[in-house]
Design a protein that fits this description.
Distance between the termini: 50 Å
Number of strands: 34
Helix content: under 10%
Shape: globular
């Protein structure tokens, strides 16, 4: 480590059991012995393994409770199954699941008991779902080992792919990394119409892709990880690296979840000969867009979801299409400035982009900084090969109307400023860190607010998540060049900003304005959380309570 970097880290204050029976678990392919896989390995190696696609039971199997009660058993996993060592086990109607994909319908009652068979406290957050405080899994204290917690709520959300994961303060990052998360699919009329129009069948022509970067099974975050976030050496897709999917000449739907602790992806497609290909964006975190959008690439931050179509109708048998994460500047800008330059008061006056002198480094040297990883954020990597193996007769047209999205009326909205920054060794919101029971953000029930989320220049990207509510992105200001190049309207928005969201990525030097309707169907005061979904930042206190009175 260079003396300059060592002094900088010092200035910033950052140096210094029960198990699931293994016999019924499907054999997810383990990663290669050497996790440091070069990009050309995944692109050309004929020994890549078939993509694991969840089936009727087992890992991420599709489970439709139809109002029946379920028990999620948070527990260690016996044996080596994929990369994960913990999960939520479920037995339902004679079938056994780990981290089941819950298939729900609007209006359906949900009754789930969480049983904690771990050796540390835990609790579950239903990410993206509209639930009351008691069921949200954040303001509720976690449950101790050997205890149970009962969730009872009705599904009130539009069709989309949501997810569930732990939310015990200070322990979230490790538990999520070890494998404690699953998917939720809410199916409504718009979803059914899309599937009918394109002949989409879950598990065959509609595929879930779960992205998670890893560096071994043990989560042992260092001070450097707590500053930047946990970054792995290998990127797993559905539990393995270097996978391929045999496809036919038709349209495929890919529903992508970024389940990484901290890594952002710049997703795109290219042919095996290096030509970039477009895809169709259908939806974002909280459901379908009003209409499809043609895109060449999309940034996807931790906890974000995107819903895309890949049209292979004109492909030739033998062709290979690569899903990749492309190179970009990760903008870990705190690397470029001395601690004294982190002036939070100056965040109130961000109107111009940073000078060239303040934007010198492009990528942090993770190995030199003691990170231990060999694949820094922003690197190029092939994620999945789509191998065209069959020509079929297929005719379908993508519907031009996908759903109805009414803009939130902001005519009488109050604007709330929120500043993202770093001080005294911790990431902060409005110069504060999380304290259990405190709610620095208080809003009135049935009011509409706009939140102006401003990230300081000498910062890093933060994926900001709001519990309990979906929001709309109104505009982006002073975006870095690599983001401004992707804007689709005069307000600086990206294609992925055009739908309903629950998580938004805010880059250094950027301001993002969102609109939130705080209408609530639940009686009494409700408390939720607003936090960075870089899980190391969240565990470190980059989170504030939000009270709706």
């Amino acid at each position: 480590m260079s003396m300059r970097r060592r002094n900088l880290l010092k200035a910033l204050g950052v140096l210094g059991c029960a198990s699931i029976p293994g016999r019924w678990l499907p054999a997810l392919a383990a990663a290669p012995a050497a996790d440091r896989v070069a990009d050309d390995y995944c692109a050309v190696n004929s020994g890549s393994r078939p993509l694991f696609v969840p089936a009727g039971d087992g890992w991420f199997g599709r489970l439709a409770p139809d109002g029946a009660p379920l028990t999620l058993r948070a527990s260690p996993i016996a044996g080596t199954v994929g990369p994960w060592t913990q999960g939520f086990a479920v037995e339902h109607r004679g079938a056994r699941f780990v981290n089941p994909t819950l298939i729900l319908k609007p209006g359906e009652p949900v009754r789930i008991d969480l049983e904690n068979a771990l050796q540390e406290p835990t609790i579950v957050h239903w990410h993206g779902l509209t639930v009351d405080t008691r069921n949200d899994g954040a303001a509720t204290p976690p449950i101790a080992p050997g205890r149970r917690y009962s969730y009872t709520f009705d599904v009130r959300d539009r069709g989309s792919m949501y997810w569930y994961h732990p939310h015990p303060h200070g322990l979230t990052a490790g538990q999520a990394y070890r494998g404690m998360f699953g998917l939720i699919e809410v199916e409504d009329d718009d979803e059914r119409a899309l599937r009918a129009a394109l002949d989409l069948v879950p598990g065959r022509s509609e595929i879930t892709l779960i992205l998670q970067d890893r560096r071994g099974a043990v989560y042992d975050a260092t001070d450097f990880d707590r500053l930047h976030g946990w970054f792995g050496d290998a990127i797993h897709v559905n539990g393995a690296v270097c996978s391929h999917l045999d496809v036919a000449t038709r349209i495929y739907r890919f529903r992508v979840l970024n389940a990484s602790n901290a890594r952002t992806y710049r997703l795109g497609l290219r042919s095996a000969d290096g030509k970039a290909m477009a895809f169709t964006l259908l939806g974002t975190d909280d459901g379908l867009l009003a209409g499809p959008r043609r895109c060449n690439e999309a940034f996807v931050a931790s906890a974000e979801r995107i819903d895309i179509l890949v049209d292979l109708s004109d492909a030739a048998v033998g062709d290979t299409v690569l899903l990749e994460t492309r190179a970009f500047d990760p903008m870990h800008m705190e690397m470029a400035a001395p601690a004294a330059a982190i002036d939070h008061a100056a965040m109130d006056h961000m109107t111009a982009p940073p000078s060239a002198e303040s934007r010198t480094p492009a990528m942090p040297d993770h190995a030199a900084m003691g990170h231990g990883g060999s694949f820094p954020e922003g690197g190029l990597r092939t994620l999945l090969q789509l191998r065209v193996r069959e020509r079929i007769a297929y005719r379908a047209t993508i519907p031009q109307r996908l759903s109805t999205i009414a803009p939130i009326d902001t005519a009488n909205a109050m604007e709330r400023p929120l500043r993202l920054g770093f001080a005294k060794g911790r990431w902060r919101i409005n110069d504060r860190v999380f304290a259990m029971g405190e709610t620095p953000i208080e809003v009135k029930r049935d009011s509409v607010e706009t939140w102006l989320i401003r990230n300081y220049f000498n910062s890093m990207p933060h994926a900001m998540h709001l519990h309990g509510f979906h929001f709309q992105v109104l505009e982006r200001q002073t975006s870095p060049d690599q983001i401004a190049a992707l804007k689709v309207d005069e307000r600086g928005r990206l294609a992925t900003d055009l739908g309903w969201k629950d998580t938004v990525l805010v880059w250094p030097g950027e301001s993002v304005k969102i609109a939130i309707d705080f209408a609530l169907p639940f009686a009494g005061e409700q408390t939720y959380m607003f936090h960075c979904h870089n899980l190391e930042h969240e565990d470190g206190g980059m989170m504030l309570g939000v009270k709706v009175t």
